[in-house]
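Hi F.,

I've been meaning to write this up properly since the lab meeting, where we talked about keeping a consistent format for the predictions we share between groups. The idea is simple: the sequence comes first, exactly as it goes in, then the structure tokens exactly as they come out, then a line or two of notes. No screenshots and no reformatting. I'm using this chain as the first example so we have something concrete to point to.
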Amino acid sequence: MATFKDWLSEKFTALDSVRNCVIDRGADVTVFTWGGAIIQVHLLDAPFKTRQVRKIVSDNSRVGVGTLFLAAAALMPPDGEQQPIDEGLLALHALFKDKVYTYRIEDGAPYIGQVHFKSFGRGDDYEVLYGPDIQIRGLPFYRVWIKTPSAIKGEWLMANFGTDAFWRQTAYTSHRAAFRREQQRSDTYHATWSSTDWNGGGPSTRTTHDSAGAEFASAAPLKDMKLARSYTQLGLGYDATSDAVKAAFRKLARELHPDVSKLPKDEAENRFKTLNEAYMYIKLANGW
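Output, unedited:
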């Protein structure tokens, strides 16, 4: 059975800039580019300390090797939570330009996500923001100078997926702002954010209490959740036009069709089926 590392290696090898990949050679995946760069990819599947992260980036940078970390999604705080963040996660956040890359297997399919920690400007509290899942279309290799946190201070060679700052994008901020306004209007329950437009969520169904101790359950708009999930599966936001949806579907269909996909046949069939269902649901929901 193909593993997440196998899938990741195949995705990297498909990039024009990548010559080849090797699994389990000093890292989970080692990438060799046509430009001569070497990048080690490390999957962090258990709680870790900043010193572990620093040792890896220090050893790699000293010999001219870049580093890319993906943390298991299970290690992340829940989306929308406001709380102190583990120092190891803050180290990754600084190394990857204010985001942490995550990985997970969901319904048998592999995904790469991204999480941003927004500081309140007081104390050690951060708001946790989940972004859209990533489609691997690049692997930038760069040098970064980190000042804070001090435990990871230094100049390091890193790599990332070249994704934009999703928390600054209009579609993301507008939907999150709408959710917050709904929270403020409601005096009967407190819901938690679940990346309505990006991560297939919407206000999550969670039991909470008001000041009198009465118990309430926030009701998620299930139809909107499915629609959001469908847009995410095509790598799009709610504001995508019908032409953009059609173009995204055709591009992904060419990559995932079992007859041409480099993925294992069962996995390709499942992902192609999911893609078709997402496309059809968007069309039906919008009356296209």
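Notes:
Residues 187-223 have pLDDT under 50 and may be disordered.
The chain has two domains: 4-163, 168-286.

If this format works for you, I'll send the rest the same way.

G.
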